[in-house]
Amino acid sequence: MREDSPYQALKLMLMSGALGAGEKLQPAILAERFSISASAMREIFLRLSGEGLLIQKEQRGFCVGLGDPATLAELSDLRIIVECGAVEKAIENKDLDWEARLTAAHHKLAHVESRLHAAGTPGDIVPLWTRVDWEFHETLLSTCPSRMLRAYHRKIYEHYRMQVVATVRHAGFFGPDTIAQHEAILTAAIAGDVEACRRAIGQHVDIVRAHVLD
Amino acid sequence: MREDSPYQALKLMLMSGALGAGEKLQPAILAERFSISASAMREIFLRLSGEGLLIQKEQRGFCVGLGDPATLAELSDLRIIVECGAVEKAIENKDLDWEARLTAAHHKLAHVESRLHAAGTPGDIVPLWTRVDWEFHETLLSTCPSRMLRAYHRKIYEHYRMQVVATVRHAGFFGPDTIAQHEAILTAAIAGDVEACRRAIGQHVDIVRAHVLD
DNA sequence: TAACAAAGCATTTTTGAGATTTTTGCGCTT
DNA sequence: AAGCGCAAAAATCTCAAAAATGCTTTGTTA
Hints:
2 copies of one chain form a homodimer. Chain A is mostly helical.
């Protein structure tokens, strides 16, 4: 699409929980942080609002959606449906290059996750983890021939992650077995076992949901 | 969401094929037609671009996506997956009010479609048909408890319809058996037959795809 | 003391103009 | 005649300021 730096940066902030649930976005402050004008900031708000990641309250500015357990559960279902459907086609079209890229993405993810696990407190690694987690799942689906399926998976993933961090803010979103679950997905994918991969993805998302919703 | 009149009007134009595939949108002309400023027009472009219904080419304005057969096929698949998944849950939660609303929506749709069938040339009822077709499918899913599933179905439906009219413009998108297919969906839904309803929806979308793609 | 109203303040939205970029048209060269 | 290059024109994007709206506070009255 486009690689608008402030646009990407703000989206990463939203997906990393830098802003609380229902918190209103202040154009002036964010504009100064990104060194752009308030109008350019507003354009980014408009676009993100069109993507469903921000809510525009008429004459009252923009705010992030509030963390709703039901919404999180619905997005989890949706993500499972779409990601499982796409990974099936991705595995059907797998090749050596894909295996290499997926292994590399998992290597990075595992490294960050082990650091996150050891650190105890999330700290400032969360944005990094948000990115590498996305890159892993994106790489997983990269050989799925349907661009639309991949595109909507991305939208749903972003929406899903925002909802997760809106529900639990900084703590607890990183489940205890996440590392093992990602490894299970990798193993099944490399082995070309579609059913095992679907199960691994479903469990991965379901466990996070259960963990977040207590 | 919001009931911005110019916003809705432009979206309906896009979904009705008032603008050709790849055609660039001229802010000044559209702004005058809707009696708003060029900046307000641009805000609507931004939002629609965020929804994926418009494409922004840097420093070259906005344009509608071009009609790509592969994209249409992908969106057809996606629509079938999501709409079938949602209709299953909708039927599980059906009640008398839903049956009444669905019958009413189908009645309107059948009336418009018979006029469209008789008229031969689409003419100016295409926007009307676009709306009642959407209202029928929306009503069909209205008792599905997952708001996210319904929301993403709407996005995909809008994207799908834009792609259809971008591919075939004004002629041919209205298949010969569309009336019978909608009636089959209605009958199966009222009867509570999930499997028959899924089949009817799948055939409905598949036949349109085959008809459009020759 | 509580409730209502009006004025002041802060924020958002819109407007209009300036600056940068792309496109178009014309003349020149090969 | 075709292709290249430069200049003019059109369009887009960005920016800063004005207008409109919502929120807060203060003052008055019951």
